[in-house]
Design goal:
Layout lengths: L1 E2 L8 E4 L2 E11 L7 E8 L5 E7 L3 E4 L3 E11 L2 E5 L6 E5 H4 L11 E7 L2 E6 L3 E9 L12 E6 L4 E5 L7 E5 L4 E6 L1
Antiparallel strand pairs: 1-6, 2-3, 2-6, 3-4, 4-5, 7-8, 7-10, 8-9, 10-11, 12-13, 12-15, 13-14, 15-16
């Protein structure tokens, strides 16, 4: 068993018999009374958000996970099929398991799948992905210093805000966690 000092954002724990991913941990020590941890988590099975407060030093059950690289192959109905490049084993994952990340997922992308034993808990795409701009207004030459942004549609169908100098056909690096433009890629 672990205790509250082992809690961290992105970790997995067992709460009310279900495996949950920790989305936020906040430590508080009020002037009066004992210290406590406020934990926000997402139930892996149902996807529901949960919140619980633990007294400092309370016992918790952390779940040990293993992350393995899997390549995204194709979409089959509501399932996204991933393949291990080591064993060539294919695993279909329901689109709900990927959530908002779907808008950046393209074929042959390497993702990290989190396993507890043989059960897939989650799938994570890389934080930075290079994508082609398929549609945007024409850029203006010499307009690289302003902070003005314009909408752009990427090859996966995702829409983000980009600087004015980015043109259709440009390859750009995107931060998938913040849905933001980072830089142009040659």
């Amino acid at each position: 068993m672990a205790d509250t000092t082992d809690l961290y954002k992105g970790g997995y724990m067992r709460y009310e018999g279900n495996i949950c991913q920790i989305t936020d941990v906040e430590f508080r020590k009020p002037g009066k009374g004992g210290a406590f941890y406020k934990v926000k988590m997402r139930d892996i099975d149902s996807g529901k958000q949960k919140e619980h407060t633990y007294n400092s030093g309370s016992s918790i059950e952390m779940v040990r996970i293993e992350r393995r690289p899997y390549q995204f192959l194709y979409i089959e109905g509501d399932n996204y099929v991933f393949m291990s490049n080591e064993t060539f084993e294919q695993i279909p994952l329901h689109k709900n398991m990927l959530g908002d990340q779907l808008k950046y997922l393209k074929e042959n992308e390497i993702c990290q799948l989190a396993f507890e034993g043989d059960t897939v808990l989650s799938a994570e795409i890389p934080q930075h992905i290079n994508l082609e701009v398929t549609m945007t207004e024409p850029g203006f030459k010499g307009d690289s210093t302003s902070n003005t942004l314009k909408p752009a549609t990427l090859e996966t169908g995702a829409e983000i805000q980009v600087p004015l100098f980015v043109n259709q056909g440009d390859m750009i690096k995107v931060d998938t966690s913040t849905d933001s433009y980072i830089e142009r890629v040659k």
